[in-house]
Write a structure and sequence with these properties.
- The complex is a heterotrimer.
- Chain B is an all-alpha fold.
- Chain B folds into 2 domains: about 100 residues, Cytochrome C biogenesis protein (Helicase, Ruva Protein, domain 3, Orthogonal Bundle), CATH 1.10.8.640; about 30 residues.
- Chain B is built from 5 helices and no strands.
- In chain C, the strands form 2 sheets. In chain C, strands 2, 3, 4, 5, 6 and 7 form a 6-stranded antiparallel beta sheet that branches. A 4-stranded antiparallel beta sheet of chain C has the order 1-10-9-8.
- In chain C, helix 7 runs antiparallel to helix 10, helix 8 runs antiparallel to helix 9 and helix 8 packs antiparallel against helix 17.
- Chain C is globular.
- Classes of the chains: A alpha/beta, B mainly alpha, C alpha+beta.
- Chains in contact: A-B, A-C, B-C.
């Protein structure tokens, strides 16, 4: 009989241990995409700006790894990451943009103000591509290898320290 | 309660969202013509997590992304997919986190085992306590 | 100066809590006649007064908007209406913790002042436990969340002019839940006191019962109000989401409900001793756990605003100390307490045991579902547990419990026979079957709402059966309380099941002058006009709605844009009829000049909250009945003692 009286304490200790452990863990709210390692779904997006073509999933099959940047002109962190995208472009990285729920006017204004690192910008008014590749926020950046396979996901704005990581992932995607 | 927190989350989220000028997706705020399909879609949407707001279902969120997810759900249901197919399409992309309905798996079995154990324990308790009655 | 008085009062109160603890411990060690033990009760009473002064000082600095106090500068504003200045005092972490200790110290003062039924040693142990719990909260306040902290330079203006938080519901909701939590802390102290002195008696249950009842009434009101608030404020017609924060308020309620019933078995029949002690500990731990989950924010990111890892760790530490300590004591001591009287299953106690086991099982399911995502996150797996899990799994235990609820109150204590209540049981079962057939076969309602509707109807009638054949004027108030509370639960269940089974939804894009319908309602969007408020502009949609071709009613839901801080809200409009509510929301406009309109017709939905209010009313009646009986007993005992004294004199 008496061992049963210890059961509540035992369960409670288990909870305490778990709660204490979780308190020390940084709270991460990001939802990672399950599509990393898998091929892009088929899609085709009309252009979001006047001076760049739209995006087609077949663009990613030319053998050259690219960045797929999910962004929007209404998104404040996207302004913060603009210089880093510019730096990546300087390094010869091809960046394909997907603008989420964005009007061409706003896209153009944003690009004039903060620079245009994109070779193509697709217009995704229904978040179809975003949902299709398992992205849950703006901005997010995906590394796509030359065979249309998603190799890496970066969640949130790209800070300076992330640039080398992305370059490394792009290099790995070449093999 | 939860409302307060949702409200505060909204206050954080909306100043940004308010600048979006693109209208919501067609089926974000529109029902399917067929009431049977709409009921199926509605039931499914109530069990899908809004990824932007994190603590609401897409059926009760004004977040733009929740609207886009509702649009996806409705057009997929309308095109003949079953609710479970739509759910697994999303789970394939976002993991179990996107669905409020846990399914029996190696990661979730305690959720189902514990209630069964509770039934057994309750039964045993009653039996032991009251058997000498007869 | 005012703030300093408050702070000084708080420190003094903390010192008195130490004295209260020491006095109680001394009584346990050296006997209740030791010198220091005589100080326990006065220490508790004085402490109540001091904390009340501290809280009054906090209200004062908020009333005069003393911007040199950090808490005021952060959470208030000179331009706020006075009522919201005052409610701002507890609308933040520090103030709400001070409110918590205030209520707790006043409760401690009350039991120290008037509770004389229990053996003095048990009371001393109870007060020591109460002092110990209070001390932890004083430490929390004084060391890490001082509400009276001054700024080096007074602020020019306060930061707390958020119009959205100026809501009377938001002002009253947290205190309501806190009163509930504190009531459970008193029950906890009694349980610890009884356990320490191995004195688990019907008197102990009687002393504890008013506190459980009071706590339970406040929790019921808190949950009911919170649910209604979410319903009208969030604009999507949902009233319960099984969100962690909601579960955090539901779990103490479930535990308190179980405790309430097991305490009444202990009070009337001296049975279920160990179980009642256990529930006393569990109920308070659920309050602490709820506070921890909400404040630490370890479960959902939406709550990130109140989150502070330091606070989270502090609450977790207190939780470990109190609950871990109490459970350790339980494991060591409970084996030496006998179970008490035995009884047969066909008895009032038998039914109450079934009720208790079912409530505990529901509590376990809610607890598991709430904490499970936390567990898997430790292994880097993220899962969501929501309504599709909670509804059916808790139903497995809810419906058997409802069945027992219908019969239990008819049974006699100790031993009864089923045949004595067979007529009543037959009536209940017949009602249940008829309802099942009508709603299941004729209306084709889905399983869970079908069971809900049928059980609600059967239970609604059955809950009045205990009154049969009795003169209604002679029925004790406490029995009325039980009847009304049980009936209230049936009413709430009917509302939930009806909402789930019969709601209709209409999403439409309407141009001015266009019509649509939802359920029996015809709706016409007449005009959309801009409206300006003090700090917002809104688009107000004037709609004419009429029920089933009846007289049209004009309503005006709004979509509001606040500018400081910039945010958008929907102001929904509810049209209430006896048989349900029309819920109307206007959203944004589309490019073709149409407006998004969301409409719901929710038959009988208001019964959910009327039911909740009835449950609370039942609790209040039971409380009045119990306290009156206690007072009568007390007077009788005093008279008896006086007479005995006189007899001795004469002889």
């Amino acid at each position: 009989m008496s061992w049963r009286l210890w059961v509540p304490l035992l369960l409670f200790s288990g909870f305490l241990g778990l709660a204490a452990y979780q308190l020390t863990q940084p709270k991460d709210d990001v939802v990672e995409s399950r599509m990393v390692g898998r091929e892009l779904p088929y899609f085709t997006l009309p252009p979001a700006s006047l001076d760049r073509p739209g995006v087609d999933s077949r663009d990613f099959y030319d053998g050259k790894p690219k960045l797929l940047n999910i962004w929007a002109s209404w998104c404040l962190p996207c302004i913060a990451e603009a210089p880093q995208l510019e730096a990546l472009k300087e390094q010869g990285v091809e960046i394909v943009g997907v603008a989420i729920r964005d009007e061409p006017v706003d896209v153009m204004r944003f690009l004039t103000q903060h620079g245009n690192p994109y070779t193509r910008i697709g217009r995704d008014d229904l978040s179809e591509v975003q949902l299709g590749i398992g992205s849950s926020g703006v901005p997010e950046t995906f590394v796509i290898d030359g065979k249309g396979v998603i190799r890496y996901q970066h969640i949130g704005d790209i800070r300076e320290e992330h640039v080398p990581i992305l370059l490394e992932e792009l290099r790995k995607a070449e093999s | 309660m939860k409302g307060l927190f949702a409200l505060i989350a909204m206050m954080i989220a909306l100043p940004v969202a308010a600048q979006q000028s693109v209208p919501p997706a067609p089926y974000a705020y529109r029902q399917l013509e067929d009431p049977v399909l709409e009921a199926e879609a509605q039931e499914l949407m109530e069990t899908l997590r809004c990824l932007k707001c994190q603590s609401q279902s897409i059926a009760d969120s004004d977040a733009a992304m929740a609207g886009d997810m509702r649009h996806q759900v409705r057009i997929r249901i309308a095109s003949g997919e079953s609710p479970e197919e739509v759910r697994s399409w999303l789970v394939e992309r976002y993991g179990d986190y996107v669905s409020y309905e846990p399914v029996l798996s190696t990661r979730t079995w305690p959720l189902f085992a514990v209630p069964v154990i509770l039934v057994l324990v309750a039964g045993m308790l009653f039996w032991r306590r009251f058997r000498r009655r007869g | 100066m005012i703030a300093e008085i408050g702070l000084a009062a708080l420190w003094l109160a903390a010192a008195l809590a130490v004295l209260q603890l020491a006095g109680g411990l001394a009584a346990l060690r050296a006997g209740e006649n030791s010198d220091i033990a005589a100080l326990t009760r006065p220490a508790a009473v004085l402490q109540g007064g001091l904390v009340a002064i501290a809280f009054a000082m906090l209200l004062w600095v908020f009333a005069i908007t003393d911007l040199s106090v950090k808490l005021v500068a952060m959470n208030s504003h000179t331009a706020k209406p006075l009522i919201f200045k005052l409610s701002g005092a507890w609308g933040n972490h520090e103030g709400s913790m001070l409110l918590w200790v205030t209520v707790m110290a006043l409760a401690g003062a009350l039991i120290a002042g008037i509770e004389r039924r229990l053996p003095e040693k048990t009371m001393q142990a109870t007060l020591a436990a109460q002092g110990f719990v209070a001390l932890g909260f004083y430490a929390f306040l004084l060391l890490s969340s001082n509400p009276f902290e001054r700024l080096p330079e007074p602020a020019l203006e306060g930061l707390g002019l958020n119009p959205l938080l100026q809501d009377i519901g938001l002002a009253l909701h947290p205190p309501t839940l806190y009163f509930g939590y504190v009531g459970l802390s008193v029950a906890f102290s009694f349980a610890v006191g009884a356990l320490v002195t191995r004195n688990v008696t019907p008197d102990f249950a009687r002393a504890m019962r008013p506190w459980i009842l009071g706590a339970w009434v406040f929790l019921t009101l808190g949950i009911t109000a919170g649910s209604y608030w979410a319903y009208y404020e969030l604009g999507w017609g949902g009233y319960w989401f099984w969100d962690p924060v909601e579960n955090a308020s539901l779990m103490p309620w479930l535990a308190a409900t179980a405790l309430l019933h097991s305490a009444s078995v202990l009070a009337s029949r001296d049975a279920l001793r160990v179980w009642t002690i256990m529930l006393g500990v569990v109920a308070f731990s659920m309050s602490m756990l709820g506070t921890f989950l909400v404040r630490s924010g370890i479960l959902t990111s939406v709550h990130a605003f109140a989150v502070d890892p330091e606070r989270g760790s502090f609450i977790l530490f207190l939780l470990a100390l109190y609950i871990g300590g109490a459970l350790l004591l339980f494991a060591l001591r409970a084996g030496t307490i006998s179970e008490g009287e035995r009884f047969s299953i066909a008895s009032r106690e038998g039914a109450l045991v079934v009720n208790n086991v079912m409530l505990s099982a529901i509590l376990a399911v809610v607890l598991l579902g709430t904490l499970y995502p936390l567990l898997t996150e430790a292994f880097d797996v993220r899962v969501s547990v929501g309504p599709p899990y909670f509804n059916p799994v808790s139903a497995v235990f809810v419906f058997p419990m409802l069945a027992v609820m219908a019969v239990g109150p008819l049974l006699r204590w100790r031993r009864d026979s089923w045949s004595r209540v067979s007529k009543e049981m037959a009536l209940t079962v017949a009602l249940l079957l008829v309802a099942l057939v009508i709603f299941g076969v004729v209306s084709q309602v889905a399983l869970l709402p079908l069971l809900g509707l049928s059980f609600a109807i059967a239970l609604g009638v059955a809950s009045f059966l205990p009154l049969r054949g009795r003169s209604l004027r002679r029925v004790p108030i406490a029995v009325w309380g039980m009847v009304i509370a049980h009936f209230g639960l049936a009413v709430a269940l009917l509302g939930m099941a009806s909402e789930s089974a019969f709601s209709t939804e209409r999403l439409a894009a309407l141009a001015e002058g266009e019509r649509t319908s939802v359920g029996p309602w015809a709706v016409e969007l007449q005009a959309v006009e801009p409206v300006a408020g003090p700090n917002w502009t809104a688009m107000a949609a004037r709609m004419e709605v009429s029920y089933d071709g009846g007289k049209p009613i004009e309503i005006e839901p709004q979509s509001r844009n606040f500018w400081a801080p910039a945010q958008q809200t929907t102001e929904s409009v509810l049209v209430t009829r006896w048989n349900g509510q029309l819920y109307a929301v206007v959203g944004s406009s589309s490019n073709d000049g149409r407006w998004q309109v969301r409409l719901w017709w929710k038959p009988l939905v208001t019964l959910i909250w009327y039911g909740g209010l009835l449950v609370a009313l039942g609790g209040i009646l039971a409380l009045i009945g119990r306290v009156r009986t206690d007072l009568k007993r007390r007077t009788a005992a005093r008279k008896g003692a006086a007479r005995r004294l006189e007899m001795e004199k004469i002889s």
